[in-house]
Amino acid sequence: MTKLTNRNEPLVTHIYTADPSAHVFEGKLYIYPSHDLDHVKESNDNGDQYDMEDYHVLSMDGPDSACVDHGQALHVKDVPWASKQMWAPDAAFKNDTYYLFFPARDHDDIFRIGVATSPSPAGPFEPQPEYIPGSFSIDPAVFVDEDDRAYMYFGGLWGGQLEKWQTDAYVAEPAEIEPDQPALGPRVAELSEDMLTFRERPVEIAIVDEQGNALLAGDEERRYFEGPWMHKYKGKYYLSYSTGTTHKIVYAIGDNPQGPFVFQGTILTPVLGWTTHHSIVQFGDKWYLFYHDSSLSGGADNKRSVKFTELEYNEDGTIRTIEPYEG
Ligand code: FUB
């Protein structure tokens, strides 16, 4: 008998999965995770332990159904511009085509973002020969708005190299950002109609407090670290992300897909394992948080498993904080 997928339990246990980007395509839930490998690597702040090589696509008929692994959808050896580290991907549908967006290090060891296409949400995906011109860093999240305009959000500190892109040029050894300086924000760029290039140069997103002041680099409970996600609820734009060093998923709300966004609070308290990474999706009249933790591997940071749980809003549009190991 096929095993149903329980809330707050790994979607699959035959492979390690992480960084889930969930979407409803063709009436089903499709999940685009990283595929963590069961190997031992040197662990450091550069993220060398996250040495992934390929992607698998998962799907569920609905939140109460079994999870299916559709097998390998793309391998780094088939991407001419990429050398290693296939990190958190996302997918989008437009022009009757499914697009898989993914970061990887290029042959100069610089993270770039590529795109691959398929007629099916399950893949396999055919990569473009070059990375998206002007792309850099990690964790692409692509949001297609109701007017059909598509935006890519991206960027990650430390191993994700965002500090090295404070100007339009890559700087291998950038100056330290002091705690009382404004934090680096994620980047956003509108995508071209064919979804294969940026329509414009990426711009930095402003995340501010209730007084309109930029969050500071030393404000590690609230400032952006990596893993952006965009969703829309009752006409407002919700930018959610990981705080990295304080291990939370938090969010900010804006009136425009490119910001500014006003910080609101915590969606998910820390999970087992250093990283935390999520997505938010509506299925029917309910909303779900997809996330990962390292429980299946007994706490190995680079051997994670994707899980999901329901996400609820308060009357005023704020999100109720989720404690992953309660109830
Ligand atoms: O999976 C590799 C990296 O870990 C992702 O790109 C980050 O968001 C973090 O989850």
UniProtKB/TrEMBL annotation:
It holds the Pfam family Glyco_hydro_43. CDD domains: GH43_CoXyl43_like (cd18619). Gene3D superfamilies: Glycosyl hydrolase domain, family 43 (2.115.10.20). Its EC number is 3.2.1.37. The record marks 139 as: Important for catalytic activity, responsible for pKa modulation of the active site Glu and correct orientation of both the proton donor and substrate. GO terms for molecular function: xylan 1,4-beta-xylosidase activity. It is an enzyme of class 3 (hydrolase). One of its GO terms (biological process) is xylan catabolic process. PANTHER family: ENDO-1,4-BETA-XYLANASE, PUTATIVE (AFU_ORTHOLOGUE AFUA_2G04480)-RELATED. Belongs to the glycosyl hydrolase 43 family. This is Xylan 1,4-beta-xylosidase. It comes from Paenibacillus curdlanolyticus YK9.
